[in-house]
Each structure stands twice: as C-alpha cells, then as structure tokens.
Amino acid sequence: MSAREEVLARLRAARDVGGSTVPDVPRDYHRTGVHAPGSAAAVERLTETLTDYRATVHRVGDLDGVPAAIAAVLAGSSSVVAPPGLPGEWLGEVTATVRRDDPPLSVADLDRLDAVVTGAAVAIADTGTFVLDALAPDQGRRAISLVPDHHVCVIRAADVVSSVPEALARLAPDGPLTFVSGPSATSDIELDRVEGVHGPRRLDVVLIVPPRA
Amino acid sequence: MTTDLGMPTVASDPHGHLRGTEPFPVAAHRALADTQLRQNLGHATRTIRAKRAAVVGEVDDWEELRRAGECVKADVMARLPELLEQLEASVTARGGVVHWARDAEEANRIVVGLVRETGSDEVVKVKSMATQETGLNEALGAAGIAALETDLAELIVQLSDDKPSHFLVPAIHRNRSEIRDIFLREMPDVDPDLTDEPRRLAMAARAHLRRKFLSARVGISGVNFAVADTGTISVVESEGNGRMCLTLPDTLITVMGVEKVVPTWSDLEVFLQLLPRSSTGERMNPYTSSWSGVTPGDGPQTFHLVLLDNGRSNVLASPDGRQALHCIRCSACLNVCPVYERTGGHAYGSIYPGPIGAVLSPQLTGIDGPDDVNASLPYASSLCGACFDACPVRIDIPHLLVQQRAAAVEAHGRPTAQDLAMRAAAAAMASPGRFSLTERVVKLGRLLSRSGRIRSVPGPGAAAWFGARDMPEPPAETFREWWGRRERS
Ligand code: SF4
C-alpha cells in the first residue's frame, strides 16, 4: 500500500470510529464591520491602527496629491523600484532613480535599491493591515516589496474596509497574497514587540482620502 | 559556514520528537530549581498575557468567533480524508506536488530526497512545529545538508544547541542578556560591542541571515492553514524571514500535519482574527503570506507539499480526544498555565509543551505501558481551567486531561485512592465552570490515603510524580487556592 493509500485508509477508519457528524458552523460573528467601507470613520481607524504599529501615514486629498507625497517620503532615497503597472505619474516628482520591475530585476539588483512603491488591494481598519496581491499590476511580485528596506504603499479610501471578513471577501486567493501590518517586527525577545528585522524596516502609507461632499 | 550544527543526532523514534527521556515530574523538579528560568518565563508570560487581554478586549464578538473556530475544526475532523483529497487535487491542479508521509521518519526521508534532487546542500527554514516534530534538521544534517533556522527565537535555539520550549517563541526561556551572549559566542561576524537592547539583537540577526536569504535555493516551511477548495497555503509570521523563505528560493518544500486543512478561503476570516490576538497579542501579526501551487514569474517555481500523519489518525479515532487536533498553535494556553510558567517547556519532553502538549503528545504516540514517559503528561496540570478560557478554538483541555488520566488508570492496573479521586473528578468535570467542585473532589484523595503516606501509586506517571516530589499525600490546598492566596498577598 502506498503511503497515500495507507494514510487515507487510517484516517477514514479513525474518522468513522471517532464520529463523522458534520456540525453546523455558527456564523453569528460580525461579517460586516462597524464602519462602512471607504467611510471617514474607517479611514480614521486605519490611520490609528497603522500608526500604532509604527507605520507613518500621509494623507492626500486626491490622486493629484500622490506624486508630491511620494517624492517627500523618498527624499532621502537614491533608487526605487516600481511594479510594472504602477501609474507612472505617481513617480513624476521623485528625484531618485526609478527602476521598473519589467523585465524582472534580480534579487541582487533589488538588494541594491533603497525603496519600493506599490499600491494595495485592500486595507483593514480594525487591524492596521493592507494586502498586496501579486497578480495586480500596481502591486507586483512579492520579492519587490520584500527586499528593499523601505516600503511606500498607496491606499485609496475606497479600498479601506473595517474588518477581516470584509477584506477576505474582496480577495482572490489564487495568486500570492501578502498581508502587511506595520514594518517587520519580532516578539521573540521577552515577548515584547520590536520593529525592524528582515522585511522592510520603514513603512510609509500614502492614503488618498477625497474630501467629503 | 556560519552555523555550527553540532553532531547531528537522528531521532531513533519513528515519531520524531514527541517523547522526552524522563517523566514530567522528574524534569519539572529540576526546572523548578532553576531560578533564572523561572524569572525569564514569569516575565515573558506576564507581558504576553497583558497584551493578549488588551487586544481580545477590543473584539466584541470574540466568543462568537471562538465558537465558529471550534465548529470549523470539528467539521474538518468529520471530513478530514475527503478534505485532504480535495486539497491534494487543488494543489496539484495549480502546479504543486503533494506527498504523503505515514510518520516522521518517512516525512524526513521525502524532504531529504527532494533537497538532494535540487543539488543544494543548504536550506533556509521558517519556523514550523511539524518539522520540529519530525526532527527534520537532524535528518538533513545526517544527509550532509545544513538547515538554517531563520526565525529569531529558533535561531537562538539553534545557535546555542538548545531545544525549543514554546510554540511561538522557542527561546522564551532566554532573556535578552543570555541572547546577547549566545550571539557574541556563535555569530562569526557579529559586532563585538553588541548590547542586549532588543532592537540591536534583532539587527544582528538581520545582518547574520541577509546573505543566506538572498542566495538560498531551497526553502522549507510549515503551514498555519491550508484551504482545501483553492489549494491556498497560509503562513503567519512576524519578522519577514517567512516571506524570505517562501519567496526567494527556487524550490519550496512545505510540511504540514494533516489537521491543518480548512474547507474554504472564507474560513480564514475566523482564524486570522483569532490567531494573532491569542498568539502575540497583536491585532494582526506583521506578515501573513498565502499562495496556491506555483505562480509563473513569482516565487518558487517548484512547490512540494508533504502531508504528515505521524499519529494524528490515532487521535482522530477518539471522539473527545480529537479536539486536540483543533489546535492552531497560538500558545495562549501555555502563557496562562501556572504549571508551564514554573516548569517551562523542556520538562514536557515532547516538542509540544504546556497544556495542549500534555493532551496531544500522549495521544499522538500512544502509551507503551506504565513506564512510558508520555503517560505522566496528563498529570502535568492543576486543572485550573485557564487554558480553556484562553483557547481561541475552545479546546476543553481540562476535560481531556482528566479523561486521559482515567484512561491510563483503566489500562494499567488496579485503581488506587488517587485514581478513584481522579475518576470522580472526571465525572464532575461536566463543564469548565465547575472546576472548584472538581478540585474539592480531587482533595478526596487526601481523605482516602489513610496511612497519610502514599507508598506506591500504580497510575502511570503518578508514581514518578510522587517519588520525585517525595510528597506524603495530595496537598491540602489545590493549586488554584494556593495561586489565589499568592496573588492576593
Ligand atoms: S490548545 Fe488552544 S490555546 Fe493552546 S496553543 Fe492550541 S489553540 Fe492555542
């Protein structure tokens, strides 16, 4: 008998002895968050939770504000990588050398670059999280947002949801996803959180929040 | 070579590292005498308990989430073989290769073979309980392959040739100055002026591992959740070492215990809320990665998934005992356990310590008679109930402990006074809310030991416990009473 057949046979026998009644899963937890997606309150909460985990948040009123905000946070950088589909105008005011990841850069190249600018698929206000979808052209493959030490992420208010369930409902799990909540950190020394290990040590978020009508 | 792996010793037990070499009471006795260890554990578990309480308090549907988590896991157990076949089909359809392993030895053999095929003699690893369980590093070492642990705490354990003592923070028993000393001694390029400031220690680990990450050709990981219908594998971490291992190598080998499968993607909406808050006491851990099979142009282009039984089918056969397979390894039950806080993780022998380890390890290995060291584990508890309250998937650990004690008594001889009391306790343990009643029943043991001294207790482990503690009779005061008195004073 192959290992596959044997393991499955054992598990079937054990499951039948131990019980095969499938329970109903109660879904009475909140599947909709306290704040409406894209609402001022959701954006406000996201700002708090991001800041709490040491990301720096920069608000701009519309897309036209993005180039200046990105240029400002990249003031000290000499080189930056951008995924193939990031809007070119976002990097229009940057003084650093811009490298498009198209064709893909080598890991050694990425290691020589100071920063990366990406968009995001969705952000979660409750937890201070944004999610990068590797199949989205403005987010790009995983290595580019991992190797450079400084990550600048642009998030639209419309992509901000309150809760984890709302975020997962918006995501397709086929391609690689990365949930990011603050710069890299560890709790391994006396169980206290210390920022800055292997992932980017500096995280800036540019939040596009149109003024309310 | 930056890491001295020492002389590799391959676990001779086909189950890997699920059994220690001495009964819990003997090991606990020694641990209790280690003041530094107790201070380190006390400090770390106090810190994490406070953080967990604060972030759990923010969530007003916490109990509803716990119940959902419990039921999703019960559903998984009821459909485990079918879900695994579905997972296999999903992963295969997306370009992954699925392997099955009956036990630890077989899993190690598969992984060693896969690494050899790549021609690499070095792998980078992200912390995984499954590969600690199988003793994979030793098996790789014996095959001439260096396994580099990249999680900070795991690196500390590896550099000091130590053993892990906690799920989340395997080096929880080390404080910052001990960590600095280990780094100074074992990292060849470390700054000799390294201080014990946690930030500086984290930077030293970054510098130490950076080159390895950028050049690694093979990565090895575990799994937090594997989604049957989409083939999505999810790994939850903090430092970014996981992202490095999952993204940069050409080949990724992932080892998972079969119980880690969940039916659908949307089930993660429950666990991604329960796990980080219970584990590191954060609203969300810094990084969670998920992927499905192979994605052209992104990440490893060869992906192997190894499905590990290693005793899990034994556990599944027990209607109540299978709850132990619901564990999402958050370590909350360790952090709240008064016994763990004093003895640390090493005393449990198995790589699964604490309350969940005490009920899981003996079920995974089975008990080979009264002298089996794992037979003593169900006694490594005061039955205070804190583990149930903390468990994000509501595993009724106290109930399982009492049940396993009763089962051990049944299997190995005539009941003694202590056993009778334990059996009564099992009957009284209808719900965790009734612990104080149970504790009063346990105290019956005192009344029943008429001579005032228990000479021999045939219940497995009990003999060793009383022998090691040289205890004349069960204590007049229960652990909880003693604890309550101590907290008030
Ligand atoms: S038994 Fe529950 S509390 Fe303990 S580690 Fe597992 S999931 Fe966490």
Description:
The complex is a heterodimer of chains A (213) and B (489). Chain A is an alpha/beta fold and 213 residues long. Chain A has one domain (49-208): 3-Layer(aba) Sandwich (Rossmann fold), CATH 3.40.50.10420. Helices cover 23% and strands 25% of the residues of chain A. Chain A contains five helices and twelve strands. Chain A has helices at 3-18, 40-52, 66-73, 107-112, 164-170, and strands spanning 56-60, 79-82, 97-100, 115-118, 122-124, 129-133, 150-156, 160-161, 177-180, 185-189, 192-195, 202-208. Chain A has a six-stranded parallel beta sheet, sandwiched between helices. The longest helix of chain A has 16 residues, at 3-18. With 489 residues, chain B is an alpha/beta fold. Among the domains of chain B are: 64-313, NagB/RpiA/CoA transferase-like (Rossmann fold), CATH 3.40.50; 417-488, no CATH class. Chain B is built from 23 helices and ten strands. Chain B has helices at residues 24-32, 35-57, 62-78, 80-93, 104-118, 129-134, 136-142, 152-159, 176-186, 198-215, 241-247, 268-279, 312-316, 332-336, 338-343, 354-365, 386-390, 397-411, 417-428, 435-442, 444-448, 462-469, 479-488, and strands at 97-101, 122-125, 146-149, 218-221, 225-227, 232-237, 251-257, 261-262, 287-292, 302-308. In chain B, helix 19 (417-428) packs antiparallel against helix 20. Mean pLDDT of chain B is 83; it is low at 1-11 and 425-489. Classes of the chains: A alpha/beta (213), B alpha/beta (489).
